[in-house]
Amino acid sequence: MTANKLTGVVLLIVFGLYGYHAAGFERALSVDIVGPRLFPIIIAIIGSVLAALLLIQDHLKKTEDPSTAELVQLQFGIELVKLVPWLLMLGYVFLLYLFGFYVASFMFLVSLGWWFGIRSPVKLVIYAVSVVAVSALLFRTALDMLLPESTLALSLGL
Amino acid sequence: MTEGVIQPLLSGFELAFQAKYLVLSFLGALFGTFVGVIPGIGAASAVALLLPFVLNLDPVGGIIMLAACYAGVMYGGSTTSILLNVPGGAFAVAVSLDGHPMAKLGRAGPALCVSAIGGYIAGTLGLVGLMLLGPFIADFALRFGPPEYLALMAFGLTAVASLSGRSIVKGLLAMLFGLAIATVGTDLTGASRYVFDNPDLLDGIEFLSVTLGLFAISEILITGHRARIAPDFKIPAYRLYITLKELLQSLGAMIRGAVIGFFVGVMPGAGATIGTMLAYSFEKQISRHPEGFGKGEIRGVAAPEAANNAVSAGSLVPMLSLGIPGSGTTAVMLTALIALDVQPGPLMFSSHPDVIWGLIAALYIGNIMLLILNLPLVGIWVALLRIPMRYVLPAVVVISVLGVFSVNQALFDILLLVGFGLVGYLMRRNGFPLAPVILGVVLGGRLEEALRQSVIMTRGEILLIFERPIVIAFFCVTLIVLFTPYALGRLRNRDRRTRAL
Lengths: 158, 501
Fold this sequence. Notes:
Shape of chain A: flat
Largest interface: A-B, 63 and 60 residues
Mean pLDDT of chain A: 84
Number of strands of chain A: 0
Distance between the termini of chain B: 63 Å
Helix content of chain B: over 70%
Low-confidence stretches of chain A: none
Strand content of chain B: under 5%
Oligomer: heterodimer
Mean pLDDT of chain B: 81
Number of strands of chain B: 2
Strand content of chain A: under 5%
Number of helices of chain A: 7
Shape of chain B: globular
């Protein structure tokens, strides 16, 4: 299966579910003659037609889509290496929940910096501390904006 | 008409050249440029941040500073778009489509120069438009009812979707994906949609999470891999300034972008995002080499950047002449004017001529100031590229996270940012354009509102909107835009086949 075919099938399912879910929307106001369903259902119908068109186009092309090889690579995990920074970002969000901006950002910068090739621990620490300090100064002090706080500390009453 | 313009304009210049106003204009432009560089703050917030200071000034000084700040944010937002593919806001997405590829080719300097010069030219043209055509255009824009807005937005969305990638189908699917994202949350009547019992979704998906996720985070995933393989990997910077040839090449695009941007800016609610995207799509449509767009075409930077700045001048037309703010930023400016005891509206030209003409003159000066300020800054911004990417990329994540968090103070928005980063990465790997998603998200709510109002106006007979000439004109252009690339492709294939035979 080519990447386009796989995308077409996934989108057909997504737009189908999107439209199916829209059919269940109830009006919040009885006087509302349009209702909350109309717009999402239009999107779902056009989206499903286009997803089917993507499948048909791919089928008519007959030639092997060049991205097939890339998809195979993805399946075998070679591409997954590129997604390690994404996993670290996901971890960063949970660290923000737990420890708040300062600790979470420090840990994230150290780990992503190391992954990108900064191997000296001293450089890593100086780099992480500087970025955290500059961002906090800019957003908190200069622009008077709030920084993410630790929900752990809040729940412990700290 | 000219006499009626020149005399008050000269008085305006006399006023604006006072040292106090020159300093305020400079400070506003400087503040705006730096805030514009930071993703997430946006023009409306930047102007709002200045309010406490501005409310202590006289009305002329206050509005001059706010307008200079607005223009500065528009320019600053494009800088990180070009250098790092991190748009300062949705309005800067179109600039990144060719601006960042230019930077990757070592032409960040020329891209920033064309952005500064384009901004200056468009800002100046926009002000001429504001001065001469403003009242007439505002009157015309008032004829736009919901069906006309529906047609305008359908045109904008289709034009961008069909022209921003190699495949029209993928472009349209990306646009629909954006529209679908816009339906999440509570609708106009209070009905919840796609909320799945999650209170964080009740207000919808924050569009900055989508913009920065799709562009900045996906870029980090792609560039990050290169930074890991080659530890000293940097984006090259061969040349700092633009050549005369490049400037002449992009001059036409700047003027066309400025005209499109100005007219879009005049229409309340249309906004900078649609203006920049339309200018980009138009430039690609009329280009002899549309295949070069998306790969570092200088006209792909000049047109949207010019449109971006012209939108700010255009959006002042309905605000000053009708008292109707066309965007969030002009709404904040309107609040400031009212707080300064100036009531914008049809009588403003006669009741506060000093404010109007002082503002127009100060904006001319502000444009020159932005150019003087930004051309030397090109060297400083490009110097940022000399820092190895392994140091830049993690910092970009932290700044993006804070930018997103600053909007609603919700950690959930950061989770969405990361999620959309993965979606953006997968979309780019599969050849889906990202710009139509952003336009879909930005315009989705307004498109649905226009559709609803049109259905109500026609009592369910929606086809009745085709009795309105402006609607017919927009839909005809939409069909042309949608099918021209397909028809041209067929013609090219036939030509190739004939030649092969």
